[in-house]
Write a structure and sequence with these properties.
261 residues; alpha/beta; Phosphatidylinositol Transfer Protein Sec14p; 5-stranded mixed sheet; 5 strands; 53% helix; 12% strand; globular; disordered N terminus; CRAL-TRIO_dom; CRAL-TRIO domain-containing protein
Amino acid sequence: MYKQTVLTTFFLLGYNIYSNFAIQTKASRAIRIDVSESNSSSFTLSEELCVKVHSYMRESRAFQNFTLQDTYSWMANLSKETFPELESSFPYLLSGYDFEERPVWVILGKYNLRKIIEEGDGAVENFKKYIYQGGIRVAKSLLKNNRQGQEVRKASFLIDLSGLEIAQVKHVATVSFVLNLLETYSDIISELVGQLVFINVNYVSRMALSLVLPVLGDLFERIRVYGSINAHWIFKLRRVLPLESIPPWYGGSDDFKPIEI
C-alpha cells in the first residue's frame, strides 16, 4: 500500500511538472509565431525584444500585472500604428553609443506639446502611443550591445531644450500632463536612463526643469544641465559623450551619421 501511494504521488508530480512545462512551451511558441509575423515602420517585433521590454514593464507600477503575452499583445497593437505628423513635429534619433557602450538618443527639441494638449483626448492618446513606440525603440537599441553575460539596461539621452516657450511652461494642462506622465512611469525611467544631459537651457527651460526634476529625484546624480551658450557647454559635452556620437550641430564630428532616425 505504501509503495503504491509513493508511485502514485510521483506520477501525479511528474504529470503536473510536464503539464506546466507544456503550457509554458506552448505559450512561448505562440509568441514566437505571432512575433515573426508582425512588422512596423517604428520597430520590428521579435521574441528577444518582447522579453526585453517585459523585463522593464513587469517591475513597474503601471504594468505590474502584465504577463509576457500581455506585453506582446500591447507591443503588437502599437506596431500597427504610425504617426507621421508626430514624427515630423517631435523628432529624435539614435546618434551612437557613449563611453560605457550605452546607446545615445538625441531628442531634438522645439516641441509644441501644448498644441497636442489643446487638440484634445485623441491627440493626447496618440502622443502617448508615440512615446511608447519610442520606448520600445530604445529597448531595441539596448539589445545591440549585449555581451556574453553582460546585459545593457540603460541608455544615455541628450535633450535639446532650445525653443521651449513660456506659453507652454505656464499652461497648467500641459505641465500637469508632463508631471503625471513622469510620475506614472518614473520607475521605468529610473531603470532605463543611465545619463540625462540637457543643453540649451535658458531661463524658461530652467523654470520647466524646476518642476520636472523633483519627480525624477532618483536620477539626480545622472543628470547634467548645460546653459544656452554652446561655447560654454560644447567641451563639457565632449567629456561625457564620444565625439562620433554627438551631432555636428552640437559640436560633434563632421563625419557624424545617425544610426537610426
